[in-house]
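Quick question about two entries, pasted in order.
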Amino acid sequence: LTDEEQDPTLTPHTRTFTPHWRQHVTFEDVFLYFSREEWELLEEAQRLQYRDVMLEDFALVSSLGLAVSRSHGATQPEPEGSPGCLRR
């Protein structure tokens, strides 16, 4: 549906548009969490792929000059073998 179909009171002059690249995105929006049980079900290749994707996402968010807080667990080291552990 177009904006006009969703809200017929909108006109081209009253409609606002925010490009997707200007919308607020946090690391939390792209971070994927696994429970311990889910993590243990993953094969080693899946764990490595997860690590690679999370490191890439972290690097991309960091390259934008945005701080990634420790409350998201992204920069807090986790014990080896724990869910979400990023091994090198």
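Here is the second entry:
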Amino acid sequence: MTQTPTPIHETVQKHYAERIRSNASCCGPASASDCCSTDSNLYPADLLATLPEGETAVSYGCGDPVTLASLEPGQTVLDLGSGAGLDCFFAAKKVGETGHVIGVDMTPEMIERARSSARRLNIQNVEFRQGYLEELPVDSNSVDVIISNCVINLAPDKSKVFAEAFRVLKPGAKFAVSDIVTDGPLPDAIKNSLSAWAGCVAGAVEAKDYLAMMEGIGFTNISVTPVFFDKETIDSAIADMSDAIELKTISRDDIYKAVYSAKITAYKPA
């Protein structure tokens, strides 16, 4: 069955296509632009040091799934929603020449940018495939570790994403992602905003529901570690919403308490 794009898919795709067009690369010359700056809040210094000299890192994510995954040489890694490729490039360094990294993203501009960066940086053990997370272009039982960085929350059918992740993982394989979840329901004005979906807010589900979906698919040993945002980060995300949400009706305190990033790990039974 071929995945039919929904209005949410189309909005998210347009949003990130515009963002990547405004930046030179996920990895670019350090002097290229003020917007292409290293995000030291997301990645540890030892990981950033694996980038070639003169390169800086730009991430659209909310965490560091590469470190969370504890990758080992020789593994096959799949990045769900790989964007411009930054986490794939970090993962490629970790798994080494005997390993392989696959990035999947639905946005053509992201795939093109990631492939271009891989060629320029001469990273040979990585490939990028265009596709939807709900219908992964990846063989069953072929992946040792899945990573993802603030992307699953963007998917309108998360249960299908988890089912596909479970399908492609080998028995005993690991799922390690950073994602946005909530502790309690979001206001309707946020949930019904398409730009809030693109901004990684409206699509976030309650942590308990996220875990229930994963358990229902068959994942085991699920662990969730919350990482709360500061108020400035959430204010900035809300300010970026382009469809004139009536913020006067929304309690900011409710949003501050509800929305957070989470480090999530789980396993497919052996």
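Reply: The domain at 7-267 is CATH 3.40.50.150 (Rossmann fold). The CA atoms of residues 43 and 64 lie 6 Å apart. Hope that helps.
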